[in-house]
Amino acid sequence: MSLKREGAFNSVVAFKDILKQAASMQEAAVAVVCAEDREVLRAVEMACESELANFILIGDEKKINDLIAAHYPSLPETGRVVTRQAENSHDAARKGVQAVSGGEASVLMKGHIDTASLLKAVLNKEAGLRTGSVLSHVALFEVPAIERSIIVTDAAMNVSPDLQQKVQILKNAVTVAHRIGLDNPKVAPLAAVEVINPAMQSTLDAAALTSMNNRGQIQGCKVDGPLALDNAVSMDAAAHKKVGGEVAGQADILLVPSIEAGNILYKSLMYFGNSQVGAVIAGAKAPIVLTSRADSALSKLNSLALAICSTN
């Protein structure tokens, strides 16, 4: 099942539709690493109520079961969860990755474990989920101010990506976009200005990505940049500044120049923009849900749905 947009610009890929799409994928299973976390278990409960997936809850079984008994007593009745003992966080990460690589689960989810420990297991050369591609963070926002959804990448993984890394980050985001029905997403490589300035590496990289797209080296999307944020998302701003092209004012994907820019944009959309968000790590053998402990259960649920949709 794929969510097809009927319009080029005003249509919205909404999380309610992504949740429906995820629920239609009957074989989805999620391995949760260090599941002894109340907010994570709340997201699992919400996912089970929505019939999104089955879950393997890996970690301290006693703590997991105690939390379920105290806060989510109906969860076992869904028949969608099993628990698995792990001796420590490293063992839990290893078992979670093993469940995915062995085909028992199709999505890996972070629980009460630090990101570095989980990624160490993911990137293990012998038993991990490496593909040779760059791993990158792909976040989908429902933005009330512009009445549509937009993808931001990379706000969490790659600190200062070079051109080749940006190519892979872009391709990862386009793959996710395709999975949720954006067949030919419009990509804006962001910078502070719309002109190419040799003193600003972000503008050089944006121009190179645009040229690579025009020459068929990057496919499945339309890339045009550099674009400043206003001219990437606002038709009025683009028209006022006389910025033309197929992407100006109607970008589906915002490719940020650095992790600082991505992190600030991500949190601005959440805290100032009142946006819903779901995010996934793409580029591994399976999608990874790598949410922050500060993220709400709803954000975790949205991320689960986005990850499940990204498996097809």
From TrEMBL:
InterPro entries: P_Ac_Bu_trans, Phos_Acetyltrans/Butyryltrans, PTA_PTB. Keywords: Acyltransferase, Transferase. Residues 82-307 form the Phosphate acetyl/butaryl transferase domain. The keyword Membrane does not apply. GO terms for molecular function: acyltransferase activity. Belongs to the phosphate acetyltransferase and butyryltransferase family. This is Phosphate butyryltransferase. It comes from Jeotgalibacillus proteolyticus.
